[in-house]
Specification:
Length: 73
């Protein structure tokens, strides 16, 4: 079954860092954005393999929304 998981990616001086908010502690990194996306997908799949199906369903049913807001700075 194909599911979706939220991923947050930050760029820093070493490349990119990614994590999945639904799955506490599930994170990865990469030198390029493409590497980072591939790495976090693999990390999520491996993380989900360790969970019972019922727990997977609960975690992946969470709705996480991201947006940006304008601020005066």
């Amino acid at each position: 079954m194909v599911r979706k998981a939220s991923v947050v990616i930050e760029k820093d001086e070493h490349g990119f860092y990614a994590w999945c908010p639904e799955l506490k502690g599930c994170q990865s990194q990469g030198v390029t954005l493409e590497d980072t996306i591939a790495n976090i997908k693999e990390a999520i799949e491996l993380y989900l393999e360790t969970l019972p199906v019922s727990e997977r369903d609960v975690l992946l049913s969470r709705e996480i929304l991201t947006t940006s807001v304008e601020i005066n700075a």
